[in-house]
Design goal:
Blueprint (H helix, E strand, L loop, with lengths): L4 E10 L6 E8 L4 E8 H10 L10 H11 L3 E11 L2 E15 L2 E13 H11 L3 E3 L1 H7 L1 E4 L2 E2 L10 H6 L10 H6 L2 H13 L3 H13 L2
Parallel strand pairs: 4-7
Antiparallel strand pairs: 1-2, 1-7, 2-3, 3-8, 4-5, 5-6, 8-9
Helix pairs in contact: 1-3, 2-3, 7-8
């Protein structure tokens, strides 16, 4: 795991663009880089429940998996978000089973790597108190870098201040189509990215980041 970056859950917010969709915000340990991931309502509720932010009496399939794992001595060692393709994050969960028996003797515990939907993997990680990791490549593609609370260009390491955003004359609209983003200049996209983050509209921020990366 040395080459991977450990993540923490920063929060979950309701999408201000599309009904029924949530944004899971992950960040690396220093908080300087954030990774927004779009997830569905059920998984968002399950993660929030495991974090103690929802009705504890409600049970999810992830809770059943936890109970099942305890009975059969299965441990979830880690969740790894390892690939980003066409805006979709791919993950796997690393499980450790009970000791393997050979000729009546317990030899060693066996590890299993299972592909998982990222939101499901995170919901399980919270319940098992397992670490979540991603790669530097994914951070470079989809991570939003911060300095003094504002997003920065990771290549040029320059930031846009509040004054510069006000002077840009750019109004912040949450309903931005892909065509709107494609027609904007790079300077306006960076300013809009700041507005999106300040207003905690992380789904829009992720789309803007994707458009900026497309132009590189």
């Amino acid at each position: 795991m040395d080459q991977l970056i450990r993540l923490a859950i920063r929060g979950i917010s309701l999408s201000q663009i599309q009904s029924g969709i949530y944004v899971l915000l992950l960040e690396e340990e220093s908080g300087r880089i954030k990774l927004p991931i779009i997830i569905e309502s059920l998984q968002a509720q399950s993660i929030a429940s495991a974090l103690g932010k929802r009705d504890p009496s409600r049970s999810f399939t992830h809770d059943l998996f936890l109970s099942f794992a305890k009975v059969f001595h299965i441990k979830l060692k880690a969740v790894v978000i390892y690939k980003l393709l066409n805006g979709i994050f791919f993950s796997y969960i690393l499980l450790e089973g009970d000791y393997v028996e050979e000729e009546g003797k317990k030899i060693e515990k066996k590890e299993y790597k299972i592909e998982s939907k990222t939101s499901d993997a995170v919901a399980l990680a919270v319940r098992f108190q397992a670490p979540i990791y991603t790669t530097r490549e994914i951070f470079d593609k989809a991570g939003i870098y911060f300095e003094n609370g504002f997003p920065i260009d990771k290549e040029n390491d320059t930031d846009t201040s509040e004054t510069e955003m006000e002077n840009s004359g750019l109004l912040f609209f949450k309903e931005k189509s892909q065509q709107d983003l494609e027609n904007m200049t790079e300077k306006d996209l960076n300013a809009l990215l700041n507005h999106a983050v300040v207003n905690e509209c992380y789904e829009l921020a992720a789309r803007i980041k994707k458009e900026l990366d497309r132009r590189e």
